[in-house]
Amino acid sequence: MRNRLGFFAKLAFAAILFFLVISIVDKNIEINELKKEKERLEAQKTQYTLQVEKLDAQLNQEVTEEVIKRIAKEKLNLREAGDQVFASDLPN
Known about the structure:
Helix content: over 70%
Strand content: under 5%
Number of strands: 0
Distance between the termini: 86 Å
Number of domains: 1
Number of helices: 2
Shape: rod-shaped
């Protein structure tokens, strides 16, 4: 009887140990995935920060006649008198 009890205790210990090892491996995989996601998000944050800085610089630049002309051409598709405009059916 005592021998049987020892066998079941060893079997239970082995099962618990196996479960713990599997849990640790699973958590390590999850940690690695979260680290990769963190790195991706940090890179994205850096990219967005650079975009914000670029836009801030544009907002803070002095509004000159050249700036107004550039915005009118780029954003509003306006042209100055004497500019030649070529039409095309091709997409931009």
